[in-house]
Amino acid sequence: MEYRRFGKSGLQVPVLSFGTATFGGQGDFFKAWGQTDVKEARRLVDICLEAGLNFFDTANGYSKGQSEEILGETLKGRRNEVLISTKATFATGEGPNDQGSSRLHLLKACEDSLRRLRVDHIDLYHMHGFDSHTPVEETLSVLDDLVRSGKVRYIACSNFSGWHLMKSLSVSERYGWSRYVGHQAYYSLVGREYEWELMPLASDQGVGTMVWSPLAGGALSGKIRRDRPAPKESRLGQITFVSYEDEQLHRVVDALELIARERDKTVPQVALNWVLRRPTVTNVVVGARNEEQLRQNLGALGWELTPEEIARLDQASEPRVLYPYWHQRGFPRLTPSLNDL
Predict the structure, then answer these.
(1) Res. 303: pLDDT tops 90
(2) How far is 112 from 250, CA to CA, in rounded Å?
(3) Cα(first)–Cα(last) distance of the chain, in Å?
(4) 125 is a catalytic site residue
(5) CA distances (Å), 7 to each of 12, 56, 62, 74, 101, in order?
(6) What per-residue confidence (pLDDT) applies to 201?
(7) Of 73-77, 100-104, 159-163, 243-247, where does mean pLDDT reach its minimum?
(8) How many whole angstroms separate alpha carbon 162 and alpha carbon 199?
(9) What's the pTM value of the predicted model, to 2 decimals?
């Protein structure tokens, strides 16, 4: 297992982490995603640890907290062997203070996560989204308190825009508070908007990126073809939480299939390997509903795409560029390319 340093911190993490959104299956959304129980979860965790993958990602909003509870149960007696990432901000109840990144909500959310996970500290604590109703100073102040108290080791954010993240980093620097060492963001061969602003920002500010949904919600699993849409009863047919254009997807899958055949790999393994080679990417979150899927995802490691193969995938996945990025690209002597990051 390859390890990388997380942003400017001293934290070393494996390049793959295991996402536990399939644990629990509470509510229509998560039920369609997966219904992994404790027994199944324990087997998946065992496989991860055998492969050197000791980083587990969850959130208090997954299956109404059951994902954290199941992960906590499977890690009993093994806390010192693993790294745990969880999240807060999204709603955990119906009350006006049951969501957001306020001091009131975060203190309770952290204590609840510690209880469900059965641990005394969280290694990486994410703000699951940006709360525009709470002052950034309030959020970062309470996160700094949690770090100083020992309940949280490092803080990170997720799904922030460029200005959200840059303002947060500036506030942390101004007051000498703990800074976001990482950003958990969506990035895939059919979702490359991350490259426009968040990737250069991460490079400039030393923020490690933890990629979620590198297979575009399963669209890059190899199960969708030009002549084979996702069955309505399948997870792909029921859940849509990332967007892409059908023609772009088919073009990318065509390129993935060709490379997969040439390298004797699977379509998901090639897609994951591409993400792992991108600038600023520290870690990629992979999920699995069963042992077969997990082992296939682990097969993305131990080999590398060639520069020519990466170029073919880059060309097939090239998105329509929005302003001001297309204008900036017109002045290459002023704007660094991805290879310069």
Answers:
(1) yes
(2) 43
(3) 24
(4) no
(5) 9, 18, 26, 29, 23
(6) 97
(7) 243-247
(8) 9
(9) 0.94
**Number of neighbouring beta carbons within 10 Å of residue 29:** 14
Instruction: Please check the confidence at residue 264 and state whether its pLDDT lies above 90.
Output: yes
Q: What is the rounded average pLDDT for all residues in the chain? A: 93
Buried residues in 277-301 as b, exposed as e (16+ CB within 10 A): ebbbbbbbbbbbbeeebbebbbebb
Q: CA nearest 289: which of 29, 31, 28, 53?
A: 31
Q: Percentage of residues in the chain with pLDDT exceeding 90?
A: 83
Strand pairing report for 3-5 and 12-14: antiparallel
Which residues, other chains included, contact 305 with Cβ-Cβ below 8 Å and sequence gap of 6+? 259, 270, 273, 274, 277, 313
Q: How far is it, in rounded angstroms, from Cα 268 to Cα 279?
A: 20
| Candidates 62, 125, 154, 194; catalytic one | 62
Output the DSSP codes for 132-154: TTS-HHHHHHHHHHHHHHTSEEE
Q: Model confidence over 18-44: pLDDT tens digits? A: 999 999 977 777 666 677 999 999 999
CA distance 133 to 80: 37
Ranking 140-149, 270-279, 328-337 by mean pLDDT, the lowest is: 328-337
Look at the block and give the residue holding tokens 């967007």: 243
Residue 236's pLDDT is what?
59
CB-side exposure of 28: number of CA atoms within 13 Å? 3
Q: Is the pLDDT of residue 141 over 70?
A: yes
Rounded to whole angstroms, the Cα distance separating 306 from 83 reads 31
Q: How far is CA 120 from CA 6, 13, 30, 114, in A?
A: 22, 20, 27, 6
Backbone angles phi, psi at 113, to 5 degrees: -65, -40
Contact 179, 169 (CB under 8 A): yes
The CA distance from 35 to 52, in Å, is 25
Give the chain's domains with CATH numbers.
Answer: 3-340 (3.20.20.100)
